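Quick one: examine the sequence and fold tokens given here and explain what the tokens say about the fold. Here goes:
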Amino acid sequence: MIIYNVTIILEENIHDEYLTFMQQIHMPAVMATGKFTSCVLLKLTEPVNEGITYCAQYITDEIEKLNDYRENYSPKLQEDFKQKFETGYVAFRSVLESL
């Protein structure tokens, strides 16, 4: 199992809008690519950071599917996100593999 993890730290004033966007638009669009078998949105509770931290995790069974997603789908979806939330966040991505 491979987990594509997107961690984002948001300013508090945009977190409600972010949750709605992620649950109703962005995460369904990512899943519609057919590259992932499931996804989950998590809120980081510890350690406490400035702002609010969320992790969107997308699960796939093949690294090739993740690579295809990152090459062919991710740039457009990231651009859509940037247009929606121009400022007020910092995001980074990581890949995890279960052993």
